[in-house]
Amino acid sequence: MAYFHDVSILRPCITGWHIRVKVLRMITVCINPRNALRLVLVDDKGFKIDCWINSEYAKHYAEFLKEDRWFSFTAFRVLENSDRVRLTNHHFRMSVFGTTVVLPADPPSTEPRDSFTQFSSIIDGTVDESVLIDLIGVLSDVGELVNVGTNPSDLTGFRLSFRIRGPCGNAIEGLVSGRSAMEFRKHYDLCVSKPLVCIMRLWKVDRYFDGPKNVRIVNQGLISKVLPYPDVPEAAEFCTMS
């Protein structure tokens, strides 16, 4: 039986790491002249780490890796994560290079549970706002899709506001922009007969001006994602909400 290291113990000063992780998110990053890849990986304990694949290897891994699939990674670099906004709460990130070995892996006997941020920690300011968060709740008060840009055909100008309610009924404002706003509205329009329970994956907490209630969640480019009607235990709490 293969032994895998926990993602939580990865450090730059040690080599020879061997991990088994699920690809939680995979994003193409536009860097001239060729694109790179950005991954969010999670192990069977629920610990996450950001992974960077530069343009030299991005095309291969974009075809090989799939979201929600398990893989083993060996012989990768572990680097300091100095990003102002981190994709995960891990203080380090991974980097795939030429000698890295990535193989499909059998999933663990028990899938990791999602770790959802409490709405109260966002409202009272105790959440780490330098790290993207996952929320689960019910969407409401979804506004109209508008383009605030000067060029009507420029997708970056799209904006859409909404609210998301937590299990205790407390609500947080949200704003989604760019191409993601169009996808967001599409999900909402398809749900006309029942509440839209969803996971908000990798969103940013934004205090848009001073004050305890002036807080919202915003998408971090295309990294942020909406997963409607997720098959997770926490979703059952919202089945009676309208």
TrEMBL record:
CDD domains: RPA1_DBD_A_like, RPA1_DBD_B_like
InterPro entries: NA-bd_OB-fold, RFA1B/D_OB_1st
Span of domain Replication protein A 70 kDa DNA-binding subunit B/D first OB fold: 4-103
PANTHER family, A to Z: OS03G0429900 PROTEIN (PTHR47165:SF4)
Protein name: Predicted protein
Organism whose genome encodes this protein: Arabidopsis lyrata subsp. lyrata
Lineage: Eukaryota, Viridiplantae, Streptophyta, Embryophyta, Tracheophyta
